[in-house]
Task: inverse folding
């Protein structure tokens, strides 16, 4: 049986309807325009949003010197309110690999994204944590949690700007 270790809980309100927020998370025409660290570009090689489907893509730093491949394997897709996916770093062939920045980073992170709409605004809640992590992997995740939270803050800022451009 798999074990979800302790993780992060992030909440953010967006000035957009839930249907649109869900769409920009699941449509490759939108997702590549806002996902990832600020300044990085995202090339999507594959995006099949259904249970068992995968996202597979490559993020490049502004100078082009840093390239990171990653993937999501979708477990649950409940439009327009919930996405559950396992996120991993990968090589160019889609094989799960260790993160380039920390040899103890967990191989898999389970993310549970929920969207609730009220008064044409959407509250996004993202709960994420290591899956089946060793003590060393959990410690690496815990140590980097503030940076991960800050990174998602930047990504969510980009999402807010992108949503505003779509209204």
Result:
């Amino acid at each position: 049986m798999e074990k979800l270790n302790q993780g992060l809980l992030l909440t953010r309100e967006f000035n957009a309807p839930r249907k649109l927020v869900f769409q920009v998370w699941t449509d490759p025409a939108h997702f590549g325009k806002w996902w990832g660290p600020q300044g990085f570009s995202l090339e999507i090689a594959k995006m099949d949003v259904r249970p068992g489907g995968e996202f597979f893509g490559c993020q490049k730093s502004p100078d082009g010197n840093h390239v990171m491949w990653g993937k999501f394997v979708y477990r649950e897709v409940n439009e327009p309110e919930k996405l559950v996916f396992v996120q991993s770093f990968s090589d160019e062939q889609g094989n799960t690999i260790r993160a380039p920045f920390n040899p103890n980073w967990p191989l898999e992170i389970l993310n549970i994204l929920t969207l609730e709409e009220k008064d044409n605004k959407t509250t996004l809640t993202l709960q994420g944590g290591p899956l089946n992590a060793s003590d060393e992997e959990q410690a690496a995740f815990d140590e980097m949690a503030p940076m991960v939270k800050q990174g998602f803050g930047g990504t969510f800022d980009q999402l807010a700007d992108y949503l505003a451009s779509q209204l």
